[in-house]
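Summary for the steering committee. One of the milestones for this cycle was to obtain a three-dimensional model of the protein with 4'-deoxy-4'-aminopyridoxal-5'-phosphate bound, which we needed before selecting residues for the alanine scan. The sequence and ligand used are listed below.
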Amino acid sequence: MAIEPTELIWYDGKLVPWREATVHVLAHSLHYGSAVFEGMRCYSTHLGPRVFRLDAHVRRLFDSARIYRMEIPFSPARIEDACREVVAKNRVEACYLRPIVFRGYGGVGMYPGPEVPIQVSIAALRWGGHLGSEAQTKGVEVCISSWRRVAPDTIPALAKCAANYASSIQIVMEAKRDGYDAAIALDHQGLVSEGAGENVFVVRDGVVRTPSTGSSILAGITRDSVMWLLRDAGYEVREEAIPREALYGADEIFYVGTAAEITPVRSVDRVPIGGGVRGPLTKALQARFFGIFTGETPDKHGWLG
Ligand code: PMP
């Protein structure tokens, strides 16, 4: 997906023209993956443009930085304000926001000493459907990846670190090469983990299950939102270990994530899920989720800030 430039990027505390937001080729993060980032969406809502769960995303950014002992030189409130500023100044109502905290140029060794600065940028991008515009109604075809997610005590899965995406890139490239839209990866034990950039939910007999944070997942903000929406609607939602074979007999499976929003999975390894079409729970959940932005679903958790 090609990038469509907007006008300004927030870079280390000020707005700079898009083309001037650059880094040196010897930046630490370019060589060692030492960057933590977020992906969030600004929706055009009945209240005007609103970044969905901005506070939760900024909190996760600071949590990721803490795991990697990166001291962000701005407060969470300043980063939240900067995100709103980038949206307003670029006059992009609905957009995708990409804040990144990275170790910049200063030293060539792996150990990030004080000579390596911690830098922050926030860009707003025009971006439509991540898995394709029809994906949310027709669903996607996925396989089980031959690549496992990172094991606990290797690379921390709960940190949204650039380095983790070495794994996601392998997963998505393999899936596309083999003719699938996307993939679900297993954890180091062979249990269901997550997609390359999405969490996974599995429905059977009205009970909704999703892998717990013990299965090498990123604790998605959409995953959390969906659990609230389902529980608010009276569904039983369980966070638990899910064996691969439980996927094939599911009534419904769907992906969730900032980019994917709520995307039905219509087959796994070419085995149709449900009738091979979007299931009723997935459809109702999408309506509740998108209803937040039109006002049809009450924003009872304050997700629009
Ligand atoms: N897992 C991974 C690996 C991801 O990159 C993402 C996208 N951030 C998700 C899950 C979904 O998280 P969220 O709902 O916070 O976007």
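Key point for the committee: Residues 39, 168, 194, 197-199, 218, 220-223, 257-258 surround 4'-deoxy-4'-aminopyridoxal-5'-phosphate (CB under 6 Å).
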